[in-house]
Design goal:
Blueprint lengths: L13 H16 L8 H14 L3 E6 L3 E8 L4 E7 L26 H20 L5 E8 L13 H6 L8 E12 L2 E4 L2 E4 L1 E10 L3 E2 L9 H19 L6 E9 L6 E2 L2 E10 L2 H15 L1 H4 L3 E8 L4 E3 L1 H14 L4 E4 L10 H6 L2 E9 L18 H18 L8
Parallel strand pairs: 3-4, 3-5, 5-16, 6-15
Antiparallel strand pairs: 1-2, 2-4, 6-16, 7-14, 8-12, 8-13, 9-11, 10-12
Length: 405
């Protein structure tokens, strides 16, 4: 491990840049799925222990890690990185391609962990020089991508552990493949969607395909239900609200000459506001009730997922200021991040927090989207992520003379 003293603000950052790249490549090469991040966790703990200044807690959400630095009176700031990978077969041809077949860091969590370790290295150096006024908790969170048997991702377990009660605010970043390295995207307020999934089972009466009049065909009923579901967005939702419903799976029947007794429809509900979230669930219930007039019945199950990511406006302003101080020519895009989900929203429901998106696309190359089997990043973006997070956390901690990294 590189000595802390060479990571100082006034020293060349070449070795830190190289180390952050090494950390990212290690995580990329050995990805682990949600709630299975045992080796990832052990590696993170080993790195953090090498800094010699952190109090380390483990075991939150099975493999989660919290590293705390107490620098005296002052605010307590959290910095969160997610740890888990996705069940994807990687198609990149690089020396550090995934060694775990069918598992891949296709959402940038390898970069998130490496960047936050880089921040921890820099902060440790400041601390050893007596230049930290406040406390910092580095939160390495498992299971952002998937839920356990109780329907929970990793973030709720950290909240249940009491960590947010000790924090004044919290920061995070996300890799952004639709922006080139050297750009960031920020947004005040709701920036990513509430996520709910639904399973609607239409119940009818099966029968012979040659005698449809003797059955209560649930597939026929489905044709009306689907029109109703897709019509909700265009005719029942206020056009000024943000929300959508999508069907991902329809399952029914096994043979061409038998009308099944039931049809299952599985889909997702996305929204930005609590009001729209509740409205869409109620509207799906009303659409399902039309099966009664068609001679059938239904069963509707709603799986509540992540809440919307709600960025604190003041913290977003600080991130923008740090970005422009860092590089006056930096492209700062101000726009919502989309209809994807992010369980960092659990944290921002509890305390002021903000996530920004960090441009990581190579110039003049096609976009390689998040969750794709060829997702990759320009590793030059890693040091930018470190610098912006360090600058922002120092701004949040103060004093003024340390507010520019």
């Amino acid at each position: 491990m590189i000595p802390i003293d060479i990571l100082a603000k006034h020293e060349p950052n070449r070795l830190l840049k190289e180390q952050v790249i090494k950390w990212r490549r290690h995580f990329h090469q050995y990805p682990e799925l949600s709630f299975h991040e045992e080796q990832t966790s052990a590696y993170i703990v080993n790195v953090l222990e090498s800094f010699g200044v952190y109090t380390i807690e483990t075991g939150i959400a099975k493999h989660g890690v919290i590293a705390t630095l107490k620098g005296g009176a002052g605010p307590v700031i959290g910095i969160r990185a997610d740890m888990d990978a996705l069940p994807i077969v990687e198609q990149n041809d690089v020396p550090h391609t995934s060694e775990n077949k069918g598992v891949m860091h296709a959402c940038g969590h390898d970069a998130h962990m490496a960047i936050v370790l880089g921040v921890a290295a820099v902060v440790a150096d400041y601390y050893q020089k007596g230049q930290i006024n406040g406390s910092i908790k580095f939160i390495f969170q498992p299971a952002e991508e998937d839920t356990d048997d109780w329907g929970k991702t990793g973030a709720p377990y950290f909240i249940e552990s009491g960590v947010t009660e000790a924090l004044d605010s919290i920061l995070a970043l996300h890799m952004c493949p639709w922006l080139e390295t050297g750009a960031i995207q920020v947004n005040k307020g709701v920036s990513m969607a509430n996520i709910d999934n639904f399973q609607l089972t239409i119940l009818g009466k099966g029968g012979h395909g040659g005698y449809p009049h003797e059955s209560k065909d649930p597939i026929w009923m489905l044709s009306f239900v689907l029109q109703g579901l897709y019509g909700l967005i265009s005719r029942k939702l206020n056009p000024l609200e943000v929300g959508t419903i999508s069907i991902g799976k329809v399952n029914a029947g096994e043979t061409p000459n038998v009308i099944p007794s039931e049809v299952t429809v599985i889909g997702t509900i996305r929204s930005y506001s609590k009001t729209t979230r509740q409205q869409l669930i109620q509207e799906i219930e009303q659409v399902a009730q039309m099966t009664h007039s068609l001679g059938g019945d239904y069963r509707l199950e709603i799986e509540a997922g992540e809440p919307a990511l709600d960025n604190d406006p003041a913290i977003i302003e600080q991130i923008k200021t740090v970005a422009k101080d860092y590089d006056p020519d930096m492209n700062v895009v101000e726009a919502p991040y989309g209809m994807g989900g992010e369980d960092f929203g659990h944290f921002t429901q509890q305390i002021p927090g903000a996530m920004f998106f960090l441009g990581c696309a190579n110039k003049d190359e096609p976009i390689k989207p998040l969750h794709s089997n060829n997702f990759t990043i320009d590793e030059a973006s890693l040091q930018i992520g470190v610098d912006l997070l360090v600058g922002t956390v120092l701004d949040l901690l103060k004093p003024e003379e340390l507010s520019s990294y």
